[in-house]
Structure formats: structure tokens, C-alpha cells
Design a protein that fits this description.
- The protein has one domain.
- The protein is about 80% helix and about 0% strand.
- It contains eleven helices and no strands.
- Helix 2 runs antiparallel to helix 3, helix 3 packs antiparallel against helix 8 and helix 3 runs parallel beside helix 10.
- The chain is globular and about 45 Å long.
- The two termini are about 35 Å apart.
């Protein structure tokens, strides 16, 4: 448990410094740690909520969330995150979907266009609700917030400045984590996952401390691009570990 606490702290610190919650890596660490897979999304989403609450508050206070342009991303993502949380995914496909998501996310973080200058914006189109809805569904199914995918997409779309994208992604993770958590609890029930979540209570203060430290450090000391590269390498590593496990599970069922 001590090792898991330490890795959750470091994950929260890294992700919070670039405006993310860390849900994808929390999931992977819990899978690799042999935790009951039914409780894994609940634990990861609770950790996401803790970390992105700090980030969303910091970005909102600094005026770096463009509310008028951000809300179309949430129109479909919130209900579909709840729907995704309700979908029953067999363990083998949960691991496969999570490993694939992590590998794609890591590659997307390494390869992305530079953001527009701060204060520069583009018009809102039909793409925002569609992208938000697709990411919300995935977020609810595997217990992530979706921001780790949204950020590279918004950079690719030249949606806005780096701070505006980071603030929007933090808020996106927060609201999708709430909706996905509601769906997961409605599917599994508190009684089914409650004991496992309670047994891992030490993870929550760990990510709270790491998330707060990451939010402060990211705002004052570190270059976001450098942190993003380190985070991408971490994501690719755990994604690869999960891919190996997924291949082993497939071979046993063949």
C-alpha cells in the first residue's frame, strides 16, 4: 500500500502541474496492483475529483477558463459520461480499453501543435459537442476525466491559448468525473465497491497533497511542455505494462 500511495502522490503532482487529474494512470496503477476492477473506476474518479478541484479553482480564479466557449464541450460529455459509467465492461476488455487509451493519450501528448497566443480564440462549431460527448462516454466507461485526450485535440484544433486550454481541460475532467462517478455507483452500488474504496482511503490524502503541490509548482516554477513530456513517458510506460497484461489475458482465454 505504501508504494501505491507514493506513486499516486507523484502522479497527482505531475498531472496537476499541467491541469490534468491523473485518472488514467490511477486506473492503470490499480489494475497492476490487483485491485478489484469493479472498484477501480470509483477510486480513480474520486482521486480525479480531488485533484481537479484545486486546478479548476486556480484557473477560474485567474480568469483562465473561457466559460462562453467551454460550455459546448460539456453539453454531451456530462450525460454520456454518466451513460458510460453505467455500461458493464468485462474485466478483460476494461484492461484492453484502458491500455489502448493510455498509449493513444501518451502519443498525443508528445505530438501536439503549439497553442495560439493567449487571448486568441476561434469560433465555436459543431465539433465541440461531438468531441466532448465521445470523450465523456469513454471517461465514464474506464473511470477517467477525458482531459488527457481533450488537451491534444484542442491544441490540434488551435482552439485557444495554452492557459485557456489547460483551464478548460481541468473543468472538463471535474464535471465528467462527477457524472462518471454517479454512473459507476448506480451500476455497481455503494455496497459492492464500498469495502475496496474504504480499504484504499490513504490514496485520497496522498493525491490531495500531490495535487495541491502540483498546482502551485506548475503555476510558478515548471515549464508545462517539459512536464507534459515527462507525464507522456509515464503514461506510455504504464500503458505498455497494461498492454502486456491484456495480451496475457487474451492468451489464457484463447
Amino acid at each position: 500500500m505504501i508504494g501505491l500511495v507514493a506513486t499516486f502522490f507523484l502522479t497527482a503532482l505531475l498531472y496537476a502541474s499541467v491541469g490534468f487529474g491523473g485518472g488514467s494512470t490511477y486506473n492503470a496503477l490499480l489494475v497492476l496492483g490487483g485491485v478489484d476492477y469493479r472498484a477501480i473506476p470509483v477510486i480513480a474518479l474520486l482521486c480525479n475529483l480531488i485533484v481537479t478541484s484545486f486546478g479548476s479553482w486556480r484557473f477560474a480564479r485567474a480568469g483562465e477558463i473561457e466559460w462562453r466557449r467551454a460550455w459546448p464541450l460539456f453539453t454531451l460529455s456530462v450525460p454520456l459520461a454518466w451513460v458510460g459509467g453505467r455500461i458493464v465492461v468485462p474485466q478483460i476488455w476494461f484492461v484492453g480499453l484502458l491500455s489502448g487509451s493510455l498509449i493513444v493519450a501518451g502519443l498525443a501528448m508528445l505530438w501536439r501543435r503549439e497553442a495560439l497566443p493567449e487571448g486568441t480564440t476561434t469560433g465555436v462549431t459543431w465539433r465541440e459537442p461531438v468531441i466532448g460527448g465521445a470523450l465523456g462516454l469513454l471517461a465514464g466507461m474506464v473511470g477517467i476525466g477525458g482531459g488527457i485526450f481533450l488537451a491534444p485535440i484542442l491544441h490540434l484544433m488551435r482552439w485557444g491559448g495554452a492557459k485557456a486550454i489547460a483551464g478548460t481541460c481541468a473543468l472538463f475532467i471535474l464535471v465528467n468525473s462527477i457524472a462518471g462517478l454517479a454512473g459507476q455507483l448506480a451500476k455497481s452500488g455503494v455496497a459492492t465497491v464500498g469495502a475496496t474504496v474504504t480499504a484504499h482511503w490513504m490514496l485520497f490524502p496522498a493525491v490531495a497533497i500531490g495535487g495541491l503541490a502540483g498546482a502551485v509548482i506548475g503555476a510558478t516554477r515548471l515549464k508545462p511542455r517539459h512536464v507534459a513530456v515527462v507525464t507522456a513517458v509515464l503514461v506510455l510506460y504504464v500503458g505498455g505494462q497494461l498492454a502486456v497484461r491484456f495480451a496475457g489475458m487474451l492468451s489464457r482465454t484463447a
